[in-house]
Amino acid sequence: MAAHAQAAQKPTLFIVRHGERVDETSHKAAWKAQTPANRRFDPPLTEQGATQARTAAEFLRSQCFDRIYASPCARTLATAKELSEALGDLPVTVVPALAACAAAVKKRGLENLPFLAPTEMARMCPRIDSFGESAPKSFEAACAWVSQQTPQALVVSHREGIRDLAHEKLKLPYCAVGVFEKGGEDWVLKALHRNTGELLVSRG
């Protein structure tokens, strides 16, 4: 019993990849044509992506979370909105460095990209109540910061983040859920699920 209690206290992250993004659909050209060049790094979620997020929420419903920590990208905020609404209106904290893992952000730098203004973020995801401005600026350090806020955290980020923490190039469908536990200095991937809950990877 004591060993089980000790295991349960390990910091745990449930990292949800965002849902389908418009620039990976047949609508890419139309979206690109009407979007300023400096904002093309931040494609929005599609309706299908919103549905994928709601499906993920059904899988996550059995877990206990007190809030959602989200990357500031449009697609992650829209995913966080759907999760929040489906999980009892969980409050949302925007953590800038949870976007630091994304390919476009790695290429150009977190401080060099015009993310949405806080008021625009709040319109997109009304349950935003805070911004993790004191969080570190690297993705892994931001994950450690999140784990210090709560022992079991729900994070909405990007496929590259799950891959970076796992140290492997996993195949990650939209709204896949990676479950990580803190093991010493590193995060250890314990399980990877589809948004439906189907188990894709199990590491015991």
Would you spell out the secondary-structure blueprint of this structure?
Layout: H1 2-8, E1 12-17, H2 28-33, H3 47-60, E2 68-70, H4 74-86, E3 92-94, H5 103-108, H6 118-124, E4 128-131, H7 139-149, E5 152-157, H8 159-166, E6 177-183, E7 186-193, E8 199-202
Parallel strand pairs: 1-5, 2-3, 2-5, 3-4
Antiparallel strand pairs: 1-6, 6-7, 7-8
Helix pairs in contact: 3-4
- As a percent range, the share of strand residues is 15-25%
Report the CATH architecture.
3-Layer(aba) Sandwich
Q: How many domains in all?
A: 1
> What is the first-to-last residue Cα distance?
18 Å
At the fourth level of CATH, the homologous superfamily is Phosphoglycerate mutase-like
Low-confidence stretches: 1-7
Helix content: 25-40%
Mean pLDDT across all residues, rounded?
94
Q: How would you classify the quaternary structure?
A: single chain
Please outline the major beta sheet: 8 strands, mixed
InterPro entries: His_Pase_superF_clade-1 (IPR013078), His_PPase_superfam (IPR029033), Phosphatase_SH3-domain (IPR051710)
Organism: Pelagomonas calceolata
Protein name: Phosphoglycerate mutase family protein
